[in-house]
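User: Fold this; tokens only.

Assistant: Input:
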Amino acid sequence: MSTNVLSTFATIGFGGVVQEYLWNWENQQLRVVYETLGKGSPLLLLPAFSSVSTRLEMGELAKLLAPHFQVVAIDWPGFGESSRPSLNYRPEIYQHFLEDFVKAVFNTPVTVVAAGHTASYVLQLAVKSAAFSKIILLAPTWRGPLPTMGASQQIAGFVRELVRSPILGQALYKLNTAPSLLSFMYRRHVFTDAAKITPSFIEKKWQTTQQPGARFASAAFVTGNLDAVHAQSDFLGLVQSLTVPLMVVIGESSPPKSREEMNALVALPGVRSVVIPGSLGLHEEYPAVVLEAIQDFLFSSEN
């Protein structure tokens, strides 16, 4: 496993140094792209899992944090500019990847800001090891879209295998990542300001979904195969086992089921929380508001 600077990628991203982390999983080498900006104490930014997941959704927040921290933002394996092989994407892959990446890149416990579905992975690693010094969860979720909608494991598994199939799967995936559907998704539960969902914005998101191999990890997320926990009690149990400070940021327009889960999380003793404008994409839609909401927690000497 090694890291290299990708000078050819210098114009892609949010203005930082773009590097690759070569990571081995089951005798297969994956190229994981990450970007570093700023100087100071290290801070890890983890974008949410989604069909359009990329470190660029953390870009504006990264630029706001860079005067104070050395910010590192990643493209998860299977997403963004990282390798997208046709693996059976499941929690073990991301659990091992996150642990290995943190060990390889940071030599001290790091502050982590994690969006959406990555919350469970951060909490699991924090309970297992002293990887993090502070944790900030942005619109945290633990259950994928289809299970949240009530789909059984059998139905979700059928859909996942269908999308993974060579010809029909490619066609179904293209239909479900059409620009019109991406725009609908953003309007429904990702952004709250429709004026920000411009044709050029959707075009960039669509391009992300059309990379070779993009459907495999996306299908795993949508069907719940990236759910690191399978019950609210397990998710809350991770938080109750934490020994590091935790803050949760909630979008006031979050979907009802997601908001119920977030409310249960912030009701636990010792969890700091704040409600700000936005929904599940609040980190991308309102980065300045997010920074204002978390800055006291970030800069405090709390241990």
